[in-house]
Amino acid sequence: MATTSSDEKQVMIVAVDDSEHSSYALQWTLDHFFTTLPNPIFKLVLLHAKPSATSAVGLAGPAYVGAAEVLPIVDSDLRKIAARVVDNAKQICSKRSVTDVITEVVEGDPRNVLCDAVEKYHASILVVGSHGYGAIKRAVLGSVSDYCAHHAHCTVMIVKRPKTKH
After folding, report:
1. CA–CA gap between residue 9 and residue 132 (Å, rounded)
2. pLDDT tens for each residue of 12-38
């Protein structure tokens, strides 16, 4: 049996954001798929969907007074947050000696960004954390994991944090 190179490995995409749910999902994935095997079968891609400045501010079009001044500042903050998210995710990986990692930041709605990335990388698995919203909040905000489970052309694994006992 021939050994497979990194290019021939199946791709696993892990969605990362600045939530504890995302960090837990990444840690869980690394512990179950990457640190237990001497030669993991997956190529790991960490993907962060960065909101656009206009969506973050919630502008109602270019008529917003002061938009020209506000948007570059908001965009700069969003870029810093994205860099921090990717940095934190890479640190979680390196603490577990997982160094063969692709990181990518793509601007847009996470639902579309994740599903597009599945196509781009021909991913076998997409991993998303569950924020654990209730039915009403999920209905209002929309669930990224629900959307991906129905629209991504691969297996979608939703990692939930165990409930803490009080």
Report:
1. 32
2. 999 999 999 999 999 999 999 998 777
